[in-house]
Amino acid sequence: MIATALAALVPPGDVVEVRALSDRFTHSGYFDDLTRCAEAVAALDADPDLKGIYITLNRVDPALLARRANRVKMRLSRSDPTTSDADILSRRWLPVDLDPVRPSGVSSTDDEHEAALRKADEIALWLSDRGFPAPIRADSGNGAHLLYAVDLANDDGGLVKGVLTTLDALFSDEHVTVDTANSNPARIWKLYGTCSRKGDHTPERPHRRARMLSVPGEVEAVSLDLLRSIAALLPTEAPAPTSKGIDLGRWLSEHGIGVRSTRPWQGGTLYVLEDCPFSGAHHDGAFAIQFPSGAVHAGCHHASCGGGVQRWPELREKHEPKKKREEVPPPPPPPSPAPEVREWAMEILTYADPLRFLLDTFNREHVGDRIVAECLVMSLASQSVENTNGLHVSVSGTSGKGKSHACTTMLRQVPEGYRMAGSVSNKALYYHDDLRAGTVFLFDDVSLSDDLQEVLKAATANFRQRIEHRTVTPDRKLQVCRIPDRCVWWLARVEDPGDDQVMNRMLTVWIDDSVEQDARVLAHMKEAEAREDGGDGEDADLPICRAVWDILKEERLHVSVPYAGRIQFTVTANRRNPGILFDLIKASALLHRFQREEYDGGIRANRQDFETAARIYAAINGESGGQETKLTKNEAAALETVAAMGWTQFTIRMLQSALGLSYHQTYRILNGYTSRGTTYSGLLEKCPAVSYFDTMITEDGPGQVVRRREHLFSFDPAVYRRWAFGAGVWIDEGDDDDRDGGPGPSDPSSIPAGLPRDGSAGREVESVGNGSGSLSTSTDRETRLSLSTGVQQHTHAHERTGVGAGVCGCGCEPRNDESDPPISAEHGERRERAAHLGPLADAAPRNPLKNGGSAERILQDPLPGVLEHAEFTRVSTDLGRCTLCGEGRAVFVSEDRRTRLCEGCYARLVRAWNVQKGIA
After folding, report:
1. Are 555 and 590 in contact (CB under 8 A)?
2. Is the domain of 586 the same as that of 643?
3. H, E, C per residue of 184-246
4. What is the pLDDT, as a whole number, of residue 523?
5. Where is the composition biased (Pro residues) (predicted)?
6. What is the arithmetic mean of pLDDT over 605-620?
7. Residue 416: beta bridge partners?
8. What DSSP string runs through 668-728?
9. Phi then psi for 900, rounded to 5 degrees?
C-alpha cells in the first residue's frame, strides 16, 4: 500500500521528503528512488513510538536530495534542515483535510471518524457540481482527505488558501472542520499505508492505518478559473455595511431563524443556520457572517441558492417587509472655509513660506519630529502634482514615542473630506462610495494582511489611476468597485511593513525617540497642564492650514525640474529613490506654486526646491530614516555600535551587552523574525557588511571543559561605510541657464505694500522655544505672515555635507554662505527677529575632559554625555588596568591618552550613548 500511495502522489524521478515524527525526535530523508523510499518507510512504520509518517506533496527542489540522499537520518539536530516553503518549485495538489473536533493528542472515535468521511463526501459532491474533476479520496486514520490535482506556482497569490477558507466557512461545523493551515507549499501530508498513532491505542480511540479509498483512472488538474470561482465565493473581508448597529445574533433570534452553531471567522462570527431561508428544497448549507465592522454577509452554499453569493439584503427584506428601515444619508460635503480664512491662506501661499507655516502649526501641538512632519506635508503636496508617482510615508519607531500623535496631528490639517483613519478590512476601501480623489489613509499600528498589502501595492504603483475591484452582486451581476486616484498612505508602525515592494514606494522616516526628545515632550506637557485658559480648543491656525490644502487640491499642475540633468546621486541601486527625490522637489514647488515661474500648463521648480528636497532626502537617509538601507532605527544603532566598538567579529551576547537589550531582541535585529505571517528581515539580509558562520567555543567549567556551538558574526567596516553613508545628492554646477528662477518665499521684493516686511507688525509674539522650530502661538494674520517669511539662522561646528548647495548636514533649514544671494537690510532684520524667537535645537552637551575637567573625578560618577565613545581608539599595546573599574585590561584609550577603558566599560559607554539616542 505504501508503494501504491507513493506512485499516486509523486511523479517518477521527482524528489520527495519523508518525515517521521515522535514525541522527542524527527527523522527525515530525501528520495528520488520510490522503491527505496517505500522500504525505508516500512521500516520506520514498524517503530511503535512514531506518531505519524508524512511526505511533501508539492514539487521539491531536486538539489535537496543531497541533504540525505535515498536514506533516512534518525534524530535530526537543529542544524539539519527540512523542506521549507522556499524549497518548493511548484504546487501539484490542493489538499483538503477534514479533521474531527476532539481533544488534542488523541485518536478519533469511530463516530468522529465516520463523520469526517461523510463530510468529505459532501464536499466532493459539492465541488463536482461546480465542475471539479474527481479527487483522490483517502482515510487519514483519524479523519478524511481529498486531494485535487493543480498546476500552480509556489506563490499562488493566496489561491489555495482562498479555496480552503471558503470550504471552511461553508462546511465546517461543531463536529468536523476543514483545516485551512494546509495552504503553505511545504506542508507535509500523511503517507497512506502507514499507521497514525495519536495518544495511546484504546478500544474507544484506536490507532488506524491511513489508506486511499479511491483514485481516479486519470488525474485531471483543476483549472484556474474553477479555483478562483471557489476562492471568491465568500468575502474574506467585510463588505460595505448596509445595516446600522445591527446585532446579527439577536436579529436571527428575534426573527425565529434557528442557528445550528456559531464560531469565530475572519475576526467576526459565522452562524450556521438550521434551515435554509432561501429555499425549501434543502435544509442545510445556509449561513450568515457578521464582520468586526458590523457588516453582514448571508448566503447558502447550494448552487440553486447562488453558491454562497451575498443574499443578506434579500433575507432582511423577507423578515422586515413592512418596517421602513432608517437609511443612512450620505455625508454632507465638507464646509468651505470662511472667505477671510481662505484669504489668509492665499496670502501665505503667495507671499510667505507655506511649508514653514504648516510645520510651525504642527509643532505647537506635537513637539519635535520636524522631518516626520515635512515628509507628511510633502506627501500631501504630491497629490496635486500632475507628473508624480505620489509620496507615501512609513513612520516607525519604539512604541509610545509619538508616531500616532505625529500622524494624527498632521492629519488634522487636512480638510475633513480628504482624510480617513482607523482600521479597515482587506477590501473595504473599495466599497466606500464617498471616498474622494486625493484622500489620505492613515493606518495606525494596524497589522497589514497579505491582501491589504496587495491593495497598498496596487494603489501606490498606480497613483494616478483608480484601482478597481470586481465582484458579484446578489443577483449575480458584475459590480466594479473603485479606490479613487491620487490617494496617499501613511503607516505608523513599530516596525516596517515587511514587504519590500511596499517599503520601496514610501518615505521611510523614524520617530525621534531619544532621551532629549523625551525631555522636550515632558516640558511641553508641563507647560500645557499649567495653562489656565483650558488649552483644549483647536489651534486658531488649523482652519488656515485646511484652507491652504483646499486651495492646493484645486490645482493639478505639471512641475518641471530644469536642472534635473545635473542632479547627481552617489547611490542609484534602488531605482525608486531618485524618483522619490524628484517627487520631493516637485512637491516643494507645488507648495510654493504661486511663487514659482509659470509656463503654459505648469510651473518650474527652482533651486530652493532642490535644497528643501535634498535636506529631507539626506535626513531620511541618515539620522531620521533608512530610505536607502531600509534599516529600522534599532538596526542602524546596532551597526553604529559594532563600528564604534571596533569589532570585526562579534557574538549576539557581545552586541547584547553593548546595546543593553535582551538576547531575544538582539537576535531579532540580526536574524529577523516572522510575526503574524509577515517576515521581517534582519541585518544579515539587509547589510552586506554583516555575515556569520558557525564556530565551536571552548570554555573552562568547574572541573571540565565545555564546548558549545556559537554563531560568530563578522563585520567589514569598509563595506559598512560605503553602504550606509553613500546616499548623497548634489548638483553639478554649469554655465547653462536652468530657468529655475522665481521669487522664493523669503524674498522681500515679492511682498506687496501693506504686508509686514520686518516681522514687527501685529500683536506681540509669544516665544515657544521647544527646540523644534516652533515659533509662535499668535493668531494675528500679519504676524503669521511675518514669521512664515522669516528664515531662522544658526551655526554649527561641523562641516556641511555634500547633499546640495546651501544644505546643512544636520537636516535643519538652509543657511547662507558665499554662494547665496545678498541679503537686503529689511530681509536681514526679519531673519534676525526670527532667530531670537526660539532655537532650532538644544545645545550639544560640553565634554568636561575637553575643558580642563578632572578625569579622575568624572570617572567616579560617570554620566551619559560626559565621556564620548567617539574620542576613544582601540589599541593592541598594553595599557594596563582600566581607569574606570580598575580591574579589566584596558584596550581603549582617549585622544589625550589620560583615560583608559576595558572592553566592558567601553561597552557601558556605548550603551549610554544608545540610551541617549532612544534605543529601545
Report:
1. yes
2. no
3. CCCCEEECCCCEECCCCCCCCCCCEECEEEECCCCCCCCCHHHHHHHHCCCCCCCCCCCCCCC
4. 86
5. 329-338
6. 89
7. none
8. HHHH-EEETTEEE--HHHH-TTEEEEEEEEEEEETTEEEEEEEEEEEE-HHHHHHHHT---
9. -125, 135
Maximum Cα–Cα distance across the chain: 101
Same domain membership, residue 49 and residue 180: yes
Gap between the Cα atoms of 389 and 457, Å rounded = 12
- In the structure grid, which three cell numbers stand for residue 917, read together? 539616542
CA atoms within 13 A on the CB side of 697: 12
* Contact call for residues 406 and 380 (beta carbons, < 8 A): no
- Domain final residue, candidates 724, 755, 776: 724
Smallest CA-to-CA distance from 621 within 508, 716, 720 is with 508
Is there a domain that residue 242 lies in? Answer: no
Domain-located, residue 804: no
Whole-angstrom Cα distance, residue 393 to residue 509?
7
**Where does a domain end: 683, 702, 724?**
724
Q: Judge whether residue 472 has pLDDT over 90.
A: no
Q: Are 269 and 248 in contact (CB under 8 A)?
A: yes
d(CA 561, CA 851): 49
Q: Are 348 and 341 in contact (CB under 8 A)?
A: no
pLDDT above 80 for 636 = yes
Give the pLDDT confidence score for residue 208 in this predicted structure: 95
> Which amino acid type is present at position 529?
E
DSSP secondary structure letter of residue 158? T
Tell me which amino acid residue 730 is.
W
Is there a single domain that holds both residue 854 and residue 911? yes
Strand-strand pairing, 16-21 and 26-31? antiparallel
Whether residue 640 is found in the same domain as residue 554: no
Q: Are 108 and 116 in contact (CB under 8 A)?
A: yes
User: pLDDT tens-digit profile of 142-159?
Assistant: 999 999 999 999 999 889
What's the pLDDT score for residue 540?
83
Q: What is the pLDDT of residues 396-432, one digit of tens each?
A: 877 777 888 888 899 989 988 888 776 555 555 655 6
In this structure, the answer to whether residues 463 and 575 fall within a common structural domain is: yes
**Could you give the number of structural domains in the chain?**
5
Q: What distance in Å separates the CA atoms of residue 111 and residue 118, rounded to the nearest whole number? A: 11
- 389 vs 459: CA distance, rounded Å: 10
Instruction: Look up the domain containing 639 and give its range.
Output: 633-724
105 and 179: one domain? yes
Phi, psi of 473 (to 5 degrees): -80, 170
Please check whether residues 260 and 221 belong to one and the same domain.
Answer: no
Closest CA to 909 of 850, 855, 869: 869
Short-list 506, 495, 501, CA closest to 673: 495
* CATH number of the domain encompassing residue 9: 3.90.920
Q: pLDDT per residue over 315-324, tens digit each?
A: 888 887 644 4
Q: Kindly report the average pLDDT of the chain as a whole number.
A: 76
Q: Give the whole-angstrom CA distance, residue 578 versus residue 574.
A: 8
Residue 72 CA to residue 30 CA, distance in Å, equals 7
DSSP-assigned letters across all residues of 582-650: HHHHHHHHHHTGGGS-EETTEEE--HHHHHHHHHHHHHHTTTT--TTT---HHHHHHHHHHHHHT-SEE
Does 698 reside within a domain?
yes
326 pLDDT band, cuts 50/70/90, is very low
> What residues form DSSP beta bridges with 298?
288
Q: Report helix, strand or coil for 265.
A: strand
Per-residue pLDDT tens digits for 789-808: 333 333 333 333 333 333 33
Answer yes or no: are the C-beta atoms of 750 and 743 closer than 8 Å: yes
**% of residues, the chain, pLDDT over 90:** 26
720 inside domain = yes
Phi–psi pair at 396, nearest 5 degrees: -125, 160
Question: Which residue shows C-alpha cell 457588516?
Answer: 295
For residue 518, the model assigns a pLDDT of: 82
573 and 667 in a single domain? The answer is no
CA 301 to mean position of chain CA atoms: 36
